[in-house]
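Tokens for chain A. Residues wanted.
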């Protein structure tokens, strides 16, 4: 089973926050640096996204609408349905984190990687993941404000203003400046990827430090954590089945169904963590826990499925020879013998 090395770094960051949480003036510095890191992340997202490629991808609009519907409609409906599990299986803070998880956009890199591994429609996966990330810049905060606003999330006009200033404005700035900095971003994408991941680690450290200082981790028992894992496994299974057989019902070809399954069943840790730090503030530590667990779970399960799809595709290509061809080959072999 694959273990994402980045998950190990995230867990190490959580451990660091548990042992050495930022307090006092150090917490203020960490909070300011985290805010700047989030703005930088979304600026780089905007600078990377090619508007031209996104518009070209619209030609496969049925597939993209299907993926967006799975990401921002079906997933949230499952999240709302899980409300009935409170307080028997999930605590209210864990449920808020689970519901937030269902509102996060899809991944880009892992959707492409698994689609390629499974011999699916890679260009469609690229466009679908990009569109989901773009829509999520606006849709995720608005859905969170709408669905979590009345359940103790503390969202207000001031919160939405922070979302606009920390997420949307930097993203639009990146898009506007792409003409001048797009080449630099492309040439140094490996270095900037390290900046991305380092920024997210800083966000995680800040969020979990607040949680440790406030003692919120005493709210999560092993039984509650186990219940959360089971609920997330069910959500993932439902989405994997729905995207695969739903794609068949909508008459998509096999390659498109593979792209739909992997792009429509995933949630982005990279996009979700910084958004949670803006949306939840001091409660971000518990809010991102379900997302971190789901991220690793989806990687393990989708890796298994991608390998299975690849074997199925290989079997179809090298399938049994027609009877006539078999007889010819046998006859030829007999004569040459």
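Reply:
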């Amino acid at each position: 089973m694959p273990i994402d090395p980045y998950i190990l770094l995230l867990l190490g960051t959580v451990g660091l926050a548990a042992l050495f949480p930022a307090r006092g003036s150090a917490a203020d510095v960490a909070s300011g640096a985290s805010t700047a890191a989030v703005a930088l992340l979304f600026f780089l997202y905007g600078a990377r996204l090619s508007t031209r490629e996104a518009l070209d991808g619209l030609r496969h609009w049925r597939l993209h609408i299907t993926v967006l519907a799975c990401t921002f409609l079906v997933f949230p409906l499952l999240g709302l349905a899980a409300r009935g599990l409170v307080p028997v299986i999930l605590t209210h803070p864990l449920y808020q984190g689970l519901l937030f998880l269902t509102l996060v956009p899809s991944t880009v890199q892992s959707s492409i990687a698994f689609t390629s591994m499974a011999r699916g429609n890679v260009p469609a996966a690229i466009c679908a993941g990009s569109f989901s990330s773009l829509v999520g810049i606006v849709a995720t905060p608005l859905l969170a404000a709408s669905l979590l606003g009345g359940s103790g999330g503390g969202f207000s006009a001031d919160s939405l203003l922070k979302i606009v200033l920390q997420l949307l404005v930097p993203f639009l700035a990146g898009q506007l400046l792409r003409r001048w900095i797009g080449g630099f971003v492309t040439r140094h994408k490996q270095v900037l990827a390290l900046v991305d991941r380092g920024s997210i680690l800083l966000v995680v450290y800040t969020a979990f430090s607040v949680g440790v200082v406030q003692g919120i981790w005493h709210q999560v028992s092993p039984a509650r954590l186990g219940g959360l894992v089971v609920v997330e496994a069910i959500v993932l299974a439902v989405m994997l089945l729905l995207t695969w057989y739903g794609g068949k019902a909508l008459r998509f070809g096999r390659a498109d169904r593979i792209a739909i399954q992997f792009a429509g069943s995933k949630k982005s840790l990279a996009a979700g963590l910084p958004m949670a730090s803006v949306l939840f503030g001091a409660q971000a530590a518990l809010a991102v826990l379900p997302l971190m667990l789901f991220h690793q779970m989806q990687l393990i399960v989708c890796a298994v499925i991608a390998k299975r799809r690849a074997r199925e595709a290989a079997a179809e290509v090298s399938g049994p020879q027609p009877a006539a061809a078999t007889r010819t080959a046998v006859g030829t072999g007999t004569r040459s013998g």
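DSSP finds 14 helices and no strands in the chain. Confidence is low (pLDDT under 50) at residues 150-154, 324-337.
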